[in-house]
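Hi all, long-time lurker, first post. I run a small reading group and we've been trying to get comfortable going from sequence to structure in the token notation. Rather than ask abstract questions, I figured I'd post a concrete chain and ask someone more experienced to write out its structure so we can walk through it together at our next meeting. Sequence below, copied exactly:
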Amino acid sequence: MKISVCIATYNHERFIRECLESIVTQKVNFKFEIVIGEDASTDGTLAICREYADKYPGLIRLLTTPVNLGMVKNGLRTAAAATGEYIAICEGDDYWTDSTKLQRQFDFLEANPEYSMIAENGLVLNTVEGKEFTFNTRAEECDLEIMDLLGKRLFPSASVLFRAKYIREDFKQPRYGGDTFLWCYLATKGKVRYLPVVSSVYRRGLQGVVLSTNKIEWARLMERWNEEISGILPESFDRKVFKKRNYSEYLKAFYFCSSVNDTRNAILSIRKCFSYQPGRTMITLSKFFLNKLRLSKV
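-- Answer (accepted) --
Happy to help. Here is the structure in token form:
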């Protein structure tokens, strides 16, 4: 088996059919499989997945569970069931827009064994505001370094293809998950190539991890993710970037908590900011209170 396409899905009744159609219609000259991890949805997602598994018995394998496992565990068990040399990912509410995506990425990795992963640009569909925009404006094909992967998100997970052997060897499963952990891990195993081709759609604004938790809990989760990512990188890597990432998330939490008059969590958030970047926090806090003072006089 050359490629396994892993789909983790939960309550994606409105979207899973579009996701599956975009994958079963891929034009390839090799054998691939689709592994669906259906996480005990409470809507009609499972029925649609069974419909496709029955329709494509040699292509689709459906994994079910009597109880909800959660995003991380479901994603991990879906990837663990993959048998392909390469793994592609497409969440149940995302979909591909290019029928040659798999073939193009497969050809590149086959011809360039020094690369562990290839990723492409994608379209962000904001379902709340009805807006569409690309993940980035890079027009040139290039290699991505770890610092690139830790910066502003450049590509969706649905655009990626990577060598499966690296998560079957000495891969330490993250406790808290997160795509960036996997991308950084793969970057320690080989080069990462980026193509400016827009080949997938990522839906933003649906009920998910970020939107179903408050800002302070998200900042705490990001802090744990950063700690896990730091643990897999070479000793020579400059870890100051993680202080900046943590500072940024807690600052967002501070602004949010302040806007809803949640004083307790606003104080907690700004204390965290001080622990990561005290000088920058002092300047930011001064500007914040000066602005509030000006507004109070209007």
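A couple of things your group might point at:
Strands lie at 3-9, 32-38, 60-63, 86-89, 95-96, 115-126, 131-134, 142-143, 161-163, 191-204.
Residues 208-213 have pLDDT under 50 and may be disordered.
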